[in-house]
Amino acid sequence: MSSVVFYILVPFVVALVASSWVFPKILNIALKKNIVDNPDARKLQRVPVPVLGGMVVLFGILVALCICQLFIDCSSLFTVVLAMSVMLYVGTMDDILNLSAYTRFLLEILMALTIIYTCGYSIDNLHGLWGIYTLPIYLSMPLTVIAVVGIVNAINLIDGVDGYSSGYCIMACMIFGLFFCIIRDMPMVMLAVVCIASLIPFFLHNVFGLSSKMFIGDGGTLLMGCVMSIFVLNVLKSDTLCLEYCEWGIGLVPLALAILCIPVFDTVRVMTMRILRKTSPFHADKTHLHHLFIEVGFSHIGTTISILTLNCLVVLGWYISYKCGANIDVQLYVVIGLSLLVTVGLYYGMHYCEKRNWWPYRLMQKIGGMTHVERKGVYLWLRRLMDR
């Protein structure tokens, strides 16, 4: 019970209080300095919205870890927090100065190399996938850089509707945190817990706030992308605490991919189609999965809940395949198949049905209309609570 209090409850409460306290102060700074995301033809908001939400999240994380350091040794997270801070800085500069995609890409590669050399994290073992175990350094290093940069950008690109990026990161941190708790990797448990607690106030303001609405911005998405990549590297490194569970038949690569399935597969789909259209893969457009839900008629919160549900169903599909005795390779194929179904299949299938006015599209429209809850009762109470 004492370990639960020190590793979960205390960090959670401290991070929640810290991020709630600092939110209005960061919001006022963003408004006074005009650090806002202005509407345009591609974006979904109609008015300028402050974009310093990432600073709120990092503040909650830092305060919680600093206070908990008095009772628990969190020194192993120092380099991780440093990498998160650098990503927040890069993303915030991008929000303010609009850095080129290639400049940001280079900085992300440098961050990945820093994690490899200072933390010792790398994807240097596939833990039996396709019969492969330890990887040589000339393969593990580029694979790790590609994975880290890919995950960071995948998380960055899902920031399109209210509550989606923060809601997804809360969900992913909960799943990773539960897994780390099972294997007794307590530093990673603490990191997951403080991230969840720091994101909750931002999520509530982002979804229900009107005058207090703030976007997490590139700073926040790059920060959380860094966290997601750290979780993945911690699961897949050679000396992971998960080794015992590999002997039970759990596929670590399929598990990590299942948790990140929609951001990763949707990003690959979008960038592939941009390249096929002979445009830059970094050229912003409205072809992401969340844009499909909005076009069909879902509300922002309806879009968020629907996509997170689809992601959880892929994780559930992986778990069922494991419980049914599927080997590691089959678990991976199940995850890839389900991921393609809920991203590529859903996106192009709905557009195909739309052109022919088939019933799946009409059914999705009907469900989307049901997500536009009337703004009264609990909704208005939450808005007044957020905006006061």
Polypeptide structure, described:
This protein has 16 helices and two strands. It is mainly α. The chain has one domain (2-387). The model has no long low-confidence stretch (mean pLDDT 89).
What labels describe this entry?
single chain; 388 residues; mainly alpha; 16 helices; 72% helix
Helix-strand layout with pairing:
Layout: H1 2-32, E1 36-37, E2 49-50, H2 53-68, H3 78-97, H4 101-119, H5 137-157, H6 164-182, H7 186-208, H8 217-236, H9 243-246, H10 252-259, H11 261-276, H12 289-296, H13 300-323, H14 328-356, H15 359-370, H16 378-387
Helix pairs in contact: 1-2, 1-7, 2-3, 2-7, 2-8, 3-4, 3-8, 4-5, 5-8, 5-11, 6-7, 6-8, 6-13, 10-13, 10-14, 11-14, 12-13, 13-14, 14-15
Stretches where pLDDT is under 50 for at least 5 consecutive residues are none
**Quick one: how many beta strands?**
2
Counted by DSSP, the helix tally is 16
Q: From the helix content, strand content and strand pairing, which structural class follows?
A: mainly alpha
Strand percent estimate: under 5%
Q: How are helices and strands ordered from N to C?
A: HEEHHHHHHHHHHHHHHH
Give the helix proportion (percent range).
Answer: over 70%
Q: Count the domains.
A: 1
Q: Could you say which overall geometry the principal axes of the C-alpha atoms support? A: globular
Strand order in the largest sheet: 1-2
Rounded radius of gyration (Å) = 21 Å
**Mean pLDDT score:** 89
Largest sheet: 2 strands, antiparallel
Q: What is the distance, rounded to the nearest whole angstrom, between the alpha carbons of the first and last residues?
A: 37 Å
